[in-house]
């Protein structure tokens, strides 16, 4: 039997999230500062050939699912070509994309034809003025147009990622829940995480996701937990309001972490394996690409240091942590 990517705690890793760039056309408040970001030069980014080689090797060790992230992945030129190449690898049966949607509508058909399976749109507000504020300049209508384009070309499921922030967009919880009731969309509320922040400002915006269920109850909406996860790779706990066309999910890494079921590794745009999103451990792959055995060994080595859990809840309570949190911003990791 072929060896699979398993860590010290018996967790099998069949899912690789690949950041293709640390650049973005927006500046979302929870992801990167408005100015002062230093981006990696293009020649430091993994090439499509290098990404292909990494995935080809890992497919032989049980990786079946790929998600392309950024930064904003669509600022990487000719990304459809990479999707097509990854789709051709034997064993890869699921290729997903997380995007802010600003530039997706005109390319939806090309991505679908290349082999894209599913898509997630980052959509933290349905209101034009607030969306512009959160993203520091984005146009929500372009995201909605991309959502319709994804539906038109048959991508399924279509998920909306909503980072909930106290005092910023938490008054739209009901609006997003109604959207899940009216349309066959899957809204995923995500807790604000302390990724790459050098201060404690995120705490004032942090909101436990139990608030979403409380709002459902207050509205008299009966939300039933789904026995089966909406198709995908993610850690959300999923619900459907009675009679709804779609569903909603809760991703709560701080208030109720899901590390015991973690099945994912991350590859940053500059070629570093991150065993865990939150901790600082990284292993650069560039020097071993071309040597299949050494590349596989490096991934197993990364898994050997993967902790049993992150400790974001301790960060919230100012408690001492067992490892060193990453100083990278979310855009530099590929959330």
Automatic annotation (TrEMBL):
Cofactor binding note of this UniProt entry: Binds 2 [4Fe-4S] clusters. Binds 1 [4Fe-4S] cluster coordinated with 3 cysteines and an exchangeable S-adenosyl-L-methionine and 1 [4Fe-4S] cluster coordinated with 3 cysteines and the GTP-derived substrate.
Catalytic reactions on record: GTP + AH2 + S-adenosyl-L-methionine = (8S)-3',8-cyclo-7,8-dihydroguanosine 5'-triphosphate + 5'-deoxyadenosine + L-methionine + A + H(+)
Keyword Nucleotide-binding found: yes
Residues given in the record as GTP binding sites: 17, 67, 98, 159, 264-266
Swiss-Prot/TrEMBL keywords: 4Fe-4S, GTP-binding, Iron, Iron-sulfur, Lyase, Metal-binding, Molybdenum cofactor biosynthesis, Nucleotide-binding, S-adenosyl-L-methionine
A Pfam family: Mob_synth_C
Bilayer-crossing regions: none
One Gene Ontology molecular-function label: GTP 3',8'-cyclase activity
PROSITE patterns given in the database record: MOAA_NIFB_PQQE, RADICAL_SAM
Domain of life (superkingdom): Bacteria
Binding site residues for [4Fe-4S] cluster 2: 259, 262, 276
Pathway per the UniProt entry: Cofactor biosynthesis; molybdopterin biosynthesis
The keyword GTP-binding is assigned to this record: yes
Domain Radical SAM core: 8-236
Annotated residues for binding of S-adenosyl-L-methionine: 30, 71, 122, 193
EC number(s) recorded for this UniProt protein: 4.1.99.22
Binding residue positions for [4Fe-4S] cluster 1: 24, 28, 31
Needed cofactors: [4Fe-4S] cluster
Region (Disordered): 316-335
Function of the protein: Catalyzes the cyclization of GTP to (8S)-3',8-cyclo-7,8-dihydroguanosine 5'-triphosphate.
Subunit structure: Monomer and homodimer.
Family that this chain belongs to: Belongs to the radical SAM superfamily. MoaA family.
HAMAP family cross-referenced by the UniProt entry: MoaA_B
Record protein name field: GTP 3',8-cyclase
Organism this protein belongs to: Paenibacillus filicis
Taxonomic placement: Bacteria, Bacillati, Bacillota, Bacilli, Bacillales
């Amino acid at each position: 039997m072929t060896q699979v990517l398993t860590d010290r705690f018996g967790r099998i890793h069949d899912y690789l999230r690949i950041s293709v760039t640390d650049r973005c056309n927006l500046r979302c408040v929870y992801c990167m500062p408005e100015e002062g970001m230093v981006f990696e030069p293009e020649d430091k980014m993994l090439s499509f050939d290098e990404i292909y080689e990494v995935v080809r090797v890992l497919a032989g060790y049980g990786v079946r699912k790929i998600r392309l992230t950024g930064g904003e992945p669509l600022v990487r030129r000719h990304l459809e070509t990479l999707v097509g190449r990854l789709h051709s690898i034997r064993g890869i049966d699921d290729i997903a994309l997380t995007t802010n949607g600003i530039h997706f509508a005109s390319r939806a058909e090309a991505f679908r034809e290349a082999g894209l399976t599913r898509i997630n749109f980052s959509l933290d507000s349905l209101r034009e003025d607030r969306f512009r504020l959160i993203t520091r300049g984005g146009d929500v209508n372009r995201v909605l147009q991309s959502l319709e384009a994804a539906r038109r070309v048959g991508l399924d499921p279509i998920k909306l990622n909503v980072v909930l922030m106290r005092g910023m967009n938490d008054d739209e919880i009901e609006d997003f829940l109604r959207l899940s009731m009216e349309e066959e969309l899957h809204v995923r509320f995500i807790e604000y995480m302390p990724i790459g922040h050098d201060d404690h400002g995120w705490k004032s915006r942090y909101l436990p996701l139990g608030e979403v269920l409380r709002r459902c109850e207050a509205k008299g909406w009966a939300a039933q937990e789904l026995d089966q996860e909406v198709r995908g790779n993610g850690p959300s706990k999923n619900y459907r309001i009675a009679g709804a066309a779609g569903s909603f999910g809760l991703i709560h890494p701080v208030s109720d972490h899901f590390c015991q079921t973690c099945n994912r590794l991350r590859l940053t745009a500059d070629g570093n394996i991150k065993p865990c999103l939150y901790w600082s451990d990284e292993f650069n792959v560039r020097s071993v690409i071309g040597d299949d055995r050494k590349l596989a060994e490096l991934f197993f080595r990364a898994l050997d240091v993967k902790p049993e859990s992150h400790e974001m809840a301790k960060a919230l309570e100012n408690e001492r942590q067992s490892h060193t949190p990453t100083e990278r911003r979310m855009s530099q990791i590929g959330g």
